[in-house]
Design goal:
Rossmann fold; 6 strands; about 450 residues; binds flavin-adenine dinucleotide; alpha/beta; 19 helices; Serine Threonine Protein Phosphatase 5, Tetratricopeptide repeat
Length: about 450
Amino acid sequence: MTVVYWFRKDLRLQDNQALFEATKVAKDTNIVACFGFNSAWFELLEGIRQHSLVESLKTLDKSLDGNLNVLAAESSQALADNLLKVCQEVNAKLVFAMNCFDPEAVRTQAVVAKTLNASGIELKLIGSAYAVQPGTVAKPDGTNYRVYTPFYKAWRLLADSQPIKINTSSISFQKSKLAIGIPVATKPTPVKVLAGEAFALRTLERFSKRALDSYDEDRNRADLGGTSHLSHALAHGEIHPRTILEILNDSPAHEVFRKEIAWREFYADVLHHYPHTLNDYYEPRFKKLRYDTGKQAEQRFKAWQEGKTGYPMVDAGMRQLLSEGWMHNRVRMIVASFLVKDLHLEWTWGAAHFESLLSDFDPASNSHGWQWTAGCGTDASPYYRIFNPILQGLKFDPNGDYVRKYIPELRHLDGALAHEPWTTLEGYSNGYPQQIVDHNTERNESLARLEELKQSS
Ligand SMILES: Cc1cc2nc3c(=O)[nH]c(=O)nc-3n(C[C@H](O)[C@H](O)[C@H](O)COP(=O)(O)OP(=O)(O)OC[C@H]3O[C@@H](n4cnc5c(N)ncnc54)[C@H](O)[C@@H]3O)c2cc1C
C-alpha cells in the first residue's frame, strides 16, 4: 500500500519511529515523502537559519534519491490541503508523521488530522523527538514535575536508549506532482552551514572521541569547545536522542551529558503542560516587574544585539550568534542575564532575537532557557542571582581567547586583559565601545525593582 510520510522536525531516515512504522505498511511499495514549507515564515528568518534549513532539506532529499516532495504550506490549512491532494494523487489512505509538542506544531497537526479525516484518510502520529515523550514523566500522584532534579530521576528510568534500525532498501520513494522543489535561501549567510543526518552522526562520533569524557569539566568553558554542538541536529531531528543516549555509560562525565539531554526533554515537558509559557511568564508575578521601554531601552537593546555593550563576554557571545548562528550555553546565560538584569528589558525581547538567529532554535529550550536565566522560569535561579559579566568572562574564558576570537577590537590585548580593556591605556585604541551601563549600578537597580515587586504583591 502506498503511504504518505510527512517529515517535520525529524529530517532523517535512521532511528525514526514514525518512518519505521510507515515502512512496515509500505513494504515493497512506495512512500511519498513530503515536507511542508511556509515561504512567508522562511522570508522572516535571518540568513543562517534559512541556510541551515535548506542544507538539512537538501541532504534529506539526497538520501531519498531526490524524492523529497516539498509542499507549499503558507498556513496549516494550506499544508493540510496539499497533503490531502498528494494522498488523492497516489491513492494513499494513511499519512505517517512524528508527534510534535510545541504549541504551533500541535495546532498544525490538529488541522492536518481534521482535513485528512474528513476525506477518510488517517493521520498516524507516532513517536516524538524525545527519549521520553512529553507528558509521560509523572509524579506518583499523576501530576507533572515542575522541578528538574526529580523529573530527571523519573526520566532516567524511562529514557529510551535503543535506536530503531530501518531497512529502507525495499522501499521506493515516489515523487508527487505537487512538489515545489527544495527552497533557496534568499539571504546570505556569514558562515558555511553543514547539516544533515550523516553530518550529525559524524558530529556525535567526533564529540565522543574528543570531548565526551571530559564534558563534566570543560562544558562551561567558552574557549574550549568542550560541548557536542549537536543542538542543530537535535532541533532539526537529524539525530534522535536515543542514538546519543546509546553511547553513554555511567561515568561522571557521561552522566553530566545525559543530564543536559534531559534538560531539553524537561523543557519540552514543561511547555507541553503550560503552552502559554512559550511567550508568557511561567511565574506570572514577574510580569509586573518594572521593565524599561522607550527610546533609550531600544538603543540599549540594539547595542546588545550588535555586541556593542562594552562588556567583552557579552559582546563576544552576541557576535558569535551573529556570525555563527550558535552560542555557547554559558554565554547564552551571561547575555540573557545582562539583557534582563543590567538593561532591565523583558526576556521576550531577547528570546525573539535568539529565535531569528539560532540555527538550533527550539521553542521549549529557548523560552525556558530565557525564563530560567531571567529568574521567572522553572527551577528559577532566583532573580536576585545576577551574573557579573566581567567575573563570568574571567572564569569561563580565563585567557581571553573566546573574547579575542569574536572581537577584533580587543585582539591587541593579551591574556585576561581582553576582559578588562578599561584597566589599560591602550584598551580602547582599536575602537572597542565604552560600557553602555555600569554593572554595579544596574545590579542595585534590579534588586530595588525586585523589592518593589515584593512590596506590591
Ligand atoms: C537563554 C538561552 C536560550 C537557549 N535557547 C536554546 C534553543 O533555542 N535551542 C536549543 O537547542 N538550546 C537552547 N539553549 C540551551 C543550550 O544553550 C544549548 O542547547 C546548547 O548551548 C547547545 O550546544 P551543544 O549542542 O554543544 O550542547 P551540549 O552541552 O553538548 O548539550 C547536548 C544537548 O543537550 C541539550 N541541552 C544542553 N543544555 C541545555 C539547556 N540548558 N537547556 C535545554 N537543552 C540543553 C541540547 O539539545 C544540546 O544539544 C538555550 C539556553 C539559554 C540559556
